[in-house]
What we know:
Blueprint: H1 3-33, H2 36-62, H3 77-106, H4 115-146, H5 151-157, H6 161-190, H7 194-223, H8 229-240, E1 245-257, E2 260-269, H9 275-292, E3 296-303, H10 309-319
Parallel strand pairs: 2-3
Antiparallel strand pairs: 1-2
Helix pairs in contact: 1-2, 1-4, 1-6, 2-3, 2-6, 2-7, 3-7, 4-5, 4-6, 6-7
Subcellular location: Membrane
Protein name: Cation diffusion facilitator family transporter
InterPro entries: Cation_efflux (IPR002524), Cation_efflux_CTD_sf (IPR036837), Cation_efflux_TM (IPR058533), Cation_efflux_TMD_sf (IPR027469), SLC30A9 (IPR040177)
Amino acid sequence: MSESEGGSTLTVVLAGAMNLAIAVMKLIAGVITGSAAMLAEAAHSVADTFTELLLLTALKVSDRPADRRHPFGYGKARYFWSLLAAVSIFVSGAVFALYEGFSTIFGEPEESTSAHVAYIVLIIAFALETVSWTQAQRQVRREAAERGRTLLGHLRHGDDPTSKTVLYEDSAALLGLLIAFSGIGLHQITGSSVWDGIASVAIGLLLAFVAYLLGRTNAGLLIGRQASADLVYAIRDTLAAAREIEAVVDLQTMLIGTDRVLVCARVDFDDALTAADLERACVRLATDLAAAYPVIAEVFIEPVPRSDVALRSAVLARYGKR
Length: 322
């Protein structure tokens, strides 16, 4: 297990332990106070706990070696289980929070009771969530630094959804705690439980937004996203500089797992090469690419004539004339 993999596992385990403890505290406080916002936060933490279990499954399954049925490995399993984690956040957290919120807003008014219990639990939960959030952002920053990206750039283009998911859900958890605190406080000050319901609805919308962000990211990775632009250009330049190659006609890449890239290149070789020269060139180029860029897991090189009209049309249709 690499340092990055070990860091991801630690991040997920720590977040899961924190969320389980927080969920129990919030549920007890929600039952005592009857606060919709507190019950919404309890559902939020329960959803986060299920999310960590799914992410642990993602880490374990995606680490399996390639076999006959899965010759490219199980790397994409991480995207599948992370997508289920996003669905869990929406179904277990957002839907319940929205239901509790609207029920409180349009239901019978309720008095604020034992608000101090809610405040104490929220403060403790905020402290615990901060510990988990700190570990998650430290892990994401480390991954970004290893790939030469900014934090925001890594969040947008990174191919490891586990630590990103924990960071997003912990950030949403901290914001949700502040929303719950505000809703309970306004309920206590004004005597109107509508504020409690509004806070619950806001928490539900927050969770739905986070679930959408994570779902969109993992769906793109599952469908088959290309490697980063920097890597694609580097591969193209490496191939174009080879003495045996006259032109790189087409270059396709796909993420087949975290830090695992599949490369398919169509190149126009020097016509003076013999069949044996061509075979040796393909092997050498594949070896050189894998050595220069460790994330490359598989390389396929196909000799093609650059003048082929159908192939040129297909490349232009995919990438445009530019």
